[in-house]
Amino acid sequence: MSLLIRIVFLFFVYILPVASIMAQPNNPGDPDVPIDGGASLLAAAGVGYGAKKIRDYMKAKKQKESEAGNPELD
Known about the structure:
This protein has 2 helices and no strands. It is mainly α and 74 residues long. The termini are far apart. The mean pLDDT is 77.
């Protein structure tokens, strides 16, 4: 019985108020958030950073294999 009371309490405290919240009305004259050069630069920087990390990983892996005496790389 106590579990049922907890579930009902949580419903009224957390779920019910969230269902009644309404966002501001959409203004057709107001444009959406623009994706300008700043977001593009951040995306390009992320791709570049990821490529550098992959290149460094592959370089370290190749060096580790050559130190181990792998005849395929010599």
